[in-house]
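Re: the 478-residue chain
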Amino acid sequence: MSRQPHVVSIVMNAVEGDSRVIKTAQAAINAGYRATIVGVAFSPDVVRQEIEGVPVVLLPHFATEMMKYGLWGGASARDLRLLVGGHLQALIPEIVSLEPDLLHSHDMIGLKLGAATAQAMTMSGRAVPWVHDVHEFVAGLTGEAANYMPTCLGYEREYLHKADYLFTVSEPLADELESRYALVTRPTVTYNAPNKSTFEESGPDIRSTLGLAPTDPLVAYVGRATRLRGCDTILDAVMKLDGVHLCFVSQGSYVEGLKARASKAGFGHRIHLLPYVPSHQVTTFVRTADVGIHGLVHYPNGEVAMPNKMFEYLHARLPIVVSDVAAMKQFVERNNIGATFVAQDVDSCTSAIKRALGDVERLRSNITDELIEEYSWEAQERKIQNVYRGLLSAAKPVTPAARDSAAMAQRLDDIEFEARYGRHLAQINFKTGIRLNSILGPVFAERVRFLREKTSEEGILRTARFVGSRLVKAMRRG
C-alpha cells in the first residue's frame, strides 16, 4: 500500500470522554497510520475538530430530526432501528469520502453502523477490513438501555460473524460471545487499562489535597458514583470503621447526597468529595491512598465487567477491594492483590476493607511490574496494532457477487428505513402532517387523511413507503 493507511473508527456518541475509542484511534496513529473517528453530536451541522490528537468528525444526531416530529420520546417509545437507519443516510457518504483502508466500529449500536459502512465500501469496489469492538454484554443490559436489547441482540446475531476481527473488554464476555454466537474465532480482549507511562511518583495527590496525615487510613473511589456501583454500601461500610476516611473522586447530585447523609449521621469529617481529575492523572493522584474500592451490584452486565477504575488502582499500586461480581472477583483473587465482599452487604464490605487495610504492604508487593505491564494500555495497543497490520497486509479483491450482495443489503436497509420513517410519520395527527408540507409537499396531507380513513395494512405500508421515500430524497437534497 503506497499511501499511509487510513483507519476510520465509528461510534454512536460525541467521542469526548470515551477513552477506549480515543486510545484505540491513537494506537493507529502510533503505528504510523492516519486515523479519524466519526461520531455524532446534537448539532445542526457537521463538526470537524481534533480530540486528544485525533481528527474527529461529528455528524448531526438523527434523534434531533426525529424529535421535531415527536418520534424520539421516552426510552420505551424509541425506535432504535429508525434512529440507526436515519444516521446511516449521513454516515455512509461521510465514510466513503474519507477513503478508509480499515474500519473499526465500537459498541452495540456501532455494530450495525460498521456492518453497513463495510458493505458500502464493498459496493464502491473496495474490500475494506472491518474490526468491531464489543463494549457491553448486550443480553445483560438493565435500566433504560434494556429497551434497546432486542434490537441490539438482533444486530449481534446478524453481524458479529461478518466482522473480520472482534475485540471485547473482558475474558468472560469473550467466552460468552464465542459460545452464544458460535464464533469461529474467539474475540481478543483489550482491557480498559491506563497508560503505564502516565504514572508519576510526584505531583498532586489525594492525601495531600485532603490534608490527611500519612497514618490516616484512606479508601479511594474514582469515577462516576451510582447505586448500581455499590456506593451506598461502600459509604455505610466505611462509617462503621473507626478512623477510616473515604474519598469519592466524583461529582454529581448522587454523590453529594451520600456526603449529606454521612454528615447528618455525624461522619462528615471522614467522608470526602473531590472533583474528577483528567484521566491521564488518575493513577498519579490516587497513589497516596491505602486502598481502592469498587462495589458493583450483581446484574448480568456487571458480572463480565472489568472497569477502568480497577486498573487505575492497580497502576497506583493500591490494594483493591471489590464486590463479588464474577470478573472482578476472579481478577483480584487470582492475583492476590486485595479483598472481595458480598455485593450490597455492608458487614461483608466492612470486613473486606478491614482485611485490606491490615495487609497493605503484602498486597502491594503482589502488584509487580510484570502485572502492571500486562494490564497496561501499551500492551493492549500492541494487540490492536498487530491485528491492523495483519488485516491491512491481506487485501482482498471485490468479486461481482460480493458487490451485488452488498448492494442488495444496502437496498434492504434503505427500504426498512423508508418504511419505518414513513409509517411513524403517517401515524401522527393531521395537524403535524400540515406542518411537514415544507419537507414533503402538499400530497403528504392527503396521504395522512387517506391513512386515517383506510387503516388496512396495505394502506399503511403504501403510505409508509411513499412518505419515507419522499423524506429520504428531501434529506439528501438538503
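DSSP finds 22 helices and 14 strands in the chain.
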